[in-house]
Amino acid sequence: MSEVIIYGMPRSSLSRTVRIACIEKEISFAFRTKGIQTPGSSPTPELLRFNPFGKVPVLVHDSLVLYETAAICRYIDDAFDGPLLRPVRHDKVAHMEQWISVALTRLDPHILRQFVIPMVFADEEQRNDPGFATRMSRIGDLIAGDLKVLDPHYADGWLFGPRFTIPDMLIMPMIQYLKAMPGGPEILAEVPNVNAAFNNFQARHSAAATDPLLPDRILRSA
Ligand SMILES: N[C@@H](CCC(=O)N[C@@H](CS)C(=O)NCC(=O)O)C(=O)O
Questions:
Q1: What's the mean pLDDT in 161-165?
Q2: In sequence order, what are the beta bridge partners of 6?
Q3: How far is CA 31 from CA 4, 6, 94, 100, 131, in A?
Q4: Is 56 in the pocket of ligand 1 (CB under 6 A)?
Q5: How sure is the predictor about 217, in pLDDT bands with cuts at 50, 70 and 90?
């Protein structure tokens, strides 16, 4: 069998999730960013060859080409020996699917698409628009509400107690971006279990090995 290749962008949260899954599964993989567009540009022909929607991450393994983060993570978990990235009991697996959906259809749009990305990429004119601060405050409130729902489920460590599973791998990288934004630490201060889980995440090898190393320049502009 050939090596797993992950195509992604260095600072893409979802690309990071699948890299974390590979590291936690203890498989060797190559992370390739060459030929992939920079954020905000049109998808490159190279990427469109693998994913007609022009998004990362993409996994290539032998003849398998796979896109969509949740599908990639499940494949990594099922196709290789190594620590399980999911719970064992069927009811818990069903709950894991629930949290994966929440992470991808609610937390990702709220935290990354509607809060972090506008904060980082807004130009001077957008920033001076009085509506900008109002929109950011409104979405900050939505995120705070989402995380309050999550918080009791992180009371025993990860979502499934001691086992670090796929939804944690989706959620924790989002929390890292949130924490780096103005207002983010205040939101996290209200959810101590999520905050403690994030501190545990940062201590993991998979987190350190995939850290987006956000430059001051980006953070200052946010
Ligand atoms: N539903 C997709 C979403 C993928 C996605 O939106 N990826 C972002 C990076 S986190 C991306 O490719 N952005 C680049 C672009 O839109 O040009 C998944 O779960 O993988």
A1: 98
A2: 31, 59
A3: 9, 5, 30, 23, 39
A4: yes
A5: low
Is 166:100 a contact under the CB 8 Å cutoff?
yes
- Residues 15-27: tens digit of each pLDDT: 999 999 999 999 9
Cα 109 from Cα 15, distance rounded (Å): 16
Q: Which domains does the chain have, with CATH numbers?
A: 4-79 (3.40.30.10), 90-221 (1.20.1050.10)
C-beta of 104 in contact with ligand 1 (< 6 A): yes
Structure tokens at 5: 């290749």
How many angstroms from the chain centroid is the CA of residue 171?
6
What is the helix, strand, coil percentage profile of the chain, to 5?
Answer: 60, 10, 30
Going by C-alpha positions, the residue among 14, 119, 26 that lies closest to residue 68 is: 14
pTM of this prediction? 0.96
- pLDDT attached to residue 222: 47
- Ligand 1 atom nearest the C-alpha of 57 is 20
How many CB atoms lie under 10 A from the CB of residue 85? 23
In sign, the C-alpha dihedral spanning 102, 105, 109, 112 is positive
What pLDDT, on a 0 to 100 scale, did the predictor assign at position 49?
Answer: 98
Q: Cα separation of 102 and 84, whole Å?
A: 21
SS3 88: coil
Ligand 1 centre and the CA of 156: distance in Å?
31
